[in-house]
Amino acid sequence: MTDIKGIISATAIALDEYGAVNENGSRQIIRHNIDKMGCSGLFVAGSTAECSSLSIIDKEEILRFTADEVKGQVPLIAHVGATNIDESIYLGKLAKELGYTAISSVPPFYFKVSYQLYCDWYHRVCDETEMDMLIYNIPHLTGASFTLAQFEELYKHEKIIGVKFTNSDFYMMEQLKRKFPSKLLFAGFDEMLLPALSIGVDGGIGSTYNFNGERANRLYQAYQSSNNQLARELQGECNELIEMVLGYGLFPCLKYALSLQGVESGYCKAPFPSALTDDAKLKFKEESAHLLSNA
User: Fold this and answer.
1) Which residue segments constitute the domains of the chain, with CATH numbers given?
2) CB 3.0 to 4.6 Å from 117: which of 78, 113, 179, 188, for a disulfide?
């Protein structure tokens, strides 16, 4: 089984004001996640990297410079999800060439198709890339939701090693861990990391770990050490910060939070606002100072 666990950052990517990938700023984000936030792995070119707005050329560039920057320091998971299966296979093969630990993918999300076609899609990507696959289950965005029996069918493929579970259905989460203990299970909602850990997940993969990973790591370690009071306090602090960020807009606020920590995080790409307004920046800086300074 692929050795991936703990707090994994769904890594943001720096973009310039025209929407082009800023490699220098992106490398700063990568280093910040590993060196300052203490993340035990990186989830690359996923939702937090604004993957739905990136070209395949952008994604290829991101996979290449991330692998070059990390140089095996932590496990890397390449998100290769796309509506075009050829793109997913191409990126998955590139990830293998670059030494990524695993790939991940949302289901193809434009046309709603039968479960069997989703299953065939995942199995084909695994077969042609020869990479371990972590299913990215995020039904509120993709519209694709799998039952327990359907996960069991997916898991029959030896290359499907688990799931990034971005869903608030904790009943399903518990069933997945209990019935498939050999498969990896990662919580995708940062605000529910602690209750997910109580179910036995292998860790969390999330956006806010870009700027709040150090606190999330302390939460993870507190839970592992059975210090439940501290873990609850830290989850409360995480959620106070998450509530602020969501109130200002996840992606532009995430990048501004990174800039407050000294990282050249850049702008967001349409359809998101390119950046917070000056007034929003001032308010967020004041409101979050007691949390970001200790993140």
Assistant:
1) 6-231 (3.20.20.70)
2) 113
